[in-house]
Amino acid sequence: MSSCIKKYACLLLLIAVALTGYTQRASSFISITGELVNNEVTSIIQDKNGFIWFGTRGGLQRFDGYEMKLLKNDFGKGSNLLSQSIEVLQNGKQHNIWIGTKSGGLSGYDLETGKISNYPNNNPNSTGFNADYILSILDTDSEKLLIGTWKGFQYLNKKTGEFTILNSVWKTFDIQPDGKGGYWVATNNGLQHFTSSLVNDVSYNFGINAVNITSIVNDKASNCLWLGTWNEGLIRFDLSTKAFKNYRHQKNNETTLSSNNTYRILLDSKGTLWVGTWGGGLNRFNSKTESFEKIHLEIPGIYTNDNQIILTIQEDPSGLLWIGTDGSGVFKFDLKQKKFFNIGYDNKKNTLSGSTHVLSVYVDPFNKLWLSTKGGGIQYSANWSNFTEIKIDDVQIPNAPNLPYESRSFLQEGDYLWVSTNKGLIRILNKGQQTKAHELFIPVPKGTISISAKKTTQIVKDSSGIIWIGTQEGGLSCITGYDKQNKPLFKNYQPAYGVKGALQNERVSCLLVDSKKRLWIGTYKGLHLYQPATDKFQVFTQSNEKKNSISNNTILCLAEDNYGNIWAGTQYGVNKITGYNGKDLTVTSYTTKDGLPSDYIHAVIPDKKGHIWMSTNKGIIRFNQSNNSFAVFDKRDGVQSIVFSENAFCKDAAGRFFFGGVEGLTYFFPDSIQISQFKPPIYFTNLTVNNIPYEFGTGKADSVLLNKPFYKTESITLNHKENIFSVEFAALDYHAPDKNEYMYKLEGFNEDWVYAGNKRLVSFTNLQPGTYKLQVKASNSDKRWNPASHELTIKILPPPWKTWWAYSIYIAIFLFLLWLTRYLGLRQEALKNQLTLSKLERQQENKLADFKERLFTNISHEFRTPLTLILGPLDDLLQRKKLDAAVEKSLRLIQKQSKRMLRMVNQLLDYQKAEAGSLKLSLQPGEMISFCHGICILFNDEADRRNITYTFTSQEKYLSFNFDHNKLEIIVFNILSNAFKFTPNGGSITVSVKKKENRSCEISVQDSGRGIPPNEIDRIFDRFYRGRAEDATTISGTGIGLSFVKELTELHGGTITAKSDGVNGSLFTVTLPALTVAESLLNIPTEPLNHNAENIEQHLNSDIMQDEQEQISQEQPIILVVEDEADMLQYIYEILSPSFKVVTATNGREGIEKAVETIPDLIVSDVMMPEVDGLELCRKLKSDKDTSHIPIILLTALSDMEHHVQGIREGADVYLPKPFNSQLLLVHIQNLINSRNTLKELYAKRILLGTGNFEIKTFEEEFLAKLMKLVEENISNSNFNNDDLANLMFMSRSTFYRKLKAVTGMSGNEFIRTARLNYAAKLLESGKYSVTEAAYEAGFNDIKYFRKRFQEQFSVSPSEYKK
Q1: DSSP structure class, residue 296
Q2: 424-463 tens-digit pLDDT
Q3: The domain 1246-1362 is classified under which CATH number: 1.20.1560.10, 2.30.40.10, 1.10.10.60, 3.40.50.1820?
Q4: Which of 39, 236, 882, 1332 is in Cβ range 3.0-4.6 Å of 245 for a Cys bridge?
């Protein structure tokens, strides 16, 4: 697109305008020089497609309104012009152009194919016939092409290609049909006529010997011929009477021909005769007055007579007149020029004196035109041609600067013309054509009735006759009356910023009195509306918060249309005010986003049809409200200027619109401005592929894509490397090409039309292979769209690897691979079956692993329950003080083996977790020396029994370390167990623990057994490996101990090694790294260690339990036990029943029902139960407001950390693994009950009415807050009791009693009584109530009873308490 703009910028566009009346106005001329190969333009035609062709001395050029295409004699190519000096062009009947050259004879250009054909006349002649220098051509309806030459007249048989000479003497300048089958021929020997059979039947010389006829125009309307001549002027030849009239140049008479050499003439579509002369320029003939007007073809800055020689004149269908000159190129003249009238600087008859920058314009009732220009003063004209300046003295203005008066507004009122100026308000006596004395009104210091400022802007008169004057520095003034000397009395409205009802800015730019008698004031700080009732102003400003606000606060102009809408022009668009509700405006704004060419609106004038005319910085705009369209008029349409002045406009009594600008004044009748309805054809003009331009006929590369001119090409085919391309197009409307607009759509890529504005280049990149259709539509320069689109089919080929033959190869290869796959598949079928069997085995292994995991879990649960029933009673028996020594020894042995069985069950579960990969490490700080020593002690009896020297050594006395206590116990226990298995009686075993330099811990076990053979030492940690065969039969074991130890050690991040010579025992070393305990793990309760039960037993003695049981009140707490195992349920019942009231349930669902029914003080529940498990029971009871306060202890065989954490999260207060110690269970129960009793006391102390001190955090506190609110609401009701309170809480009496008792330790009546007493105490503290009044207010009817209870609660009487 940039290249096209550059080309178009090379075209020199010059406009010359005559400014008197429209009939004498030359509209617009355009000279095109930059792209012409030669400025001598001999012939101009427009082909059937709409392109303009210029024949020049340098070749043939095609013009599309934007750029030129050149055809010239190029000997580097095949078929081309025999001469590039073009003399004449003629549209042919066979879609071609006939080209007559000055030295190369006849050629033809085919518009469809772009081919050039040459027609040399090789016939020998002896008469001097010149076949190479062609002056005229006429393509007839027959097979004959008539050709006039510099010397002769001939015709060409278009079928046979043969020439026939008709005359060898004449200079044949022009050939025209006579309309009857014959032909008129202009020669240097007069006017000749030929019949249809080409017989020269008549000749006319018009009384002039050897008259030289240069051109012919057949005027059918007048039945005459207009003949151009050499030296004889213009001849009118009447075909009926054969009379003729000669029009010649007369010296000193501007209404006659400018020259007698009338070389080219044209009768345009409006019947106007144009006469182009050789040396006298262009003339326009007025047939009514039979006078001539010379049209000056001038180029500013260039002074030459080249433009006085007119070589060709041509009119196109759109009404443009093209004039070719001998050296100044081509001029363009619009016959349908819009009727804009102008007054400017270079006009011939009505030139402005001084400045052309018009600041204001006015037509008074006497049809005098008043103007004020910047720096040029105030002037008027009665004939709108000669202007007279008003001379104004500055006598009244002391020290006035030497500046001219400049007016911004005029108003005729009676016999006076009021003029607002930059130096004050002027009143001029203006009657008829006479303009007399003037008066100047300026501000008077401290004057209350003088005008507010010197610089005045606009003047209007309202419906009551009051004249309002806007000022630039003093706000608004109005004339309220006149004194005895007829001097105006002023009232001023000064700005008061931020004051409601006042003007908000001192600069009043425009005023308007609308049809509803409202006064609108435009300022530089918003739009104001005058309110006569209050003598104040309502202000409307731009606001981003209001959708209907004006678009800008700087109001430049105001107008009202026929529908009562107010139009406000601003620095940012125009605003249409359609409604006013007394508070807000209904506004629609239009800016450049909506189609305005410029946002700066200088002036607005509505016409009778509802169109809105506006002057801007980019010409005059006409806005059509019916379809919201904008028409733009600039210099090319006849407008004087494109930059206009602020508020410089006027509408006179005749209906003319006036707009002032920096280059003068433009005025017009709005109804006379017609929009062109011409629908320009559109063509594709340029093709660029991969940044390479393609043009037919310019090289070899284009033959691949283009086999004819691109504008005639209907489709192109691109390969996969050519999918980056650009297409340029042009609408053939030559009035103002840069105002033509375009839209396009590429079918297959774009879903909707894309508006391109005046950009006429579209580019596409990386389109997928396929067929696309590019459609383009265009508008003319007045934005009238041609509904028909021009289309180009674009086919992008796929790359070779995506073509049909490529896919055929792919299919063949696929079929081969399919066969090969089948062949190989059959050979590997056996392997697939083996893989299937392996997969089934793996699935079976997974199922077996899942089964084992469930089996071990269930076994653990089943083992733990009977172990609990064994260890629990054993612990109870061993706590008795008086036991037989032999019995106690047996019981100790049973206890030891039971605990050993429990450890085995735990190890079995851990092994299963390790095998499944789900075993997790639970680090906990501990003291390593005492921990390992405690495990070693367990083997003391075994060492004594077998006389084994068993020692434990450590370099450190204490070693603080982070480790998993349960798993490290398994590691050490298994290694020691293994050492005792393989150490004979009387041997030795040494255990040592030491801290290494890297802070790691090393545990070693050295034995004196038989050792490990060297070939087996690397396999002892393998699963199920049991060593030598003789050992397998004599020593029991499973072969998984050391393997499990290794896994647990590696889980710690440590290592285990074994050393042995196979003879002298073995050394096992476990090295554990120093690990950091995460805070989250430290806060999670760890699994209880089984060996710690012995420590607990040492601290739990019967004396402590006896003391705690004595603290239990006579009213025994209720304990709910939920257990599905009958023996376990009975065992727990026996433990608890001596100290508590026990209620039992055999499953979770029954446990929930009994908990809700009885509201126990504590619940002991198993976890694994049918129907509802212990976790679900805990969750439901803790989420129920009635049972949320009940502590819950969970007993379970699921002793791993994951289940432990889950139980605590669900709300359990204590989580005890089975088997459990009965005394530990009792301690937990007693602690929880004591905690609940402490809460009861706390809640009982907080029963204070009206304090609002409860911060609700739990269900219990919410329960108490609700109770206190209900009691407070009924405090004065002496009959309010426990039953009423239970009903208000929507609870049964028994449930309410148990809930309240559990929370506060009080019954309902006790709670109410306590609340009443507390309330009475508050009343007494206030000092406003007597004892009796306080008692009645608190709901006590019996004063004696009140005194008694008050004494019990507060230990003082009410009277003393009051003191």
Answers
A1: P
A2: 999 999 988 778 778 999 998 877 789 999 999 999 999 9
A3: 1.10.10.60
A4: 236
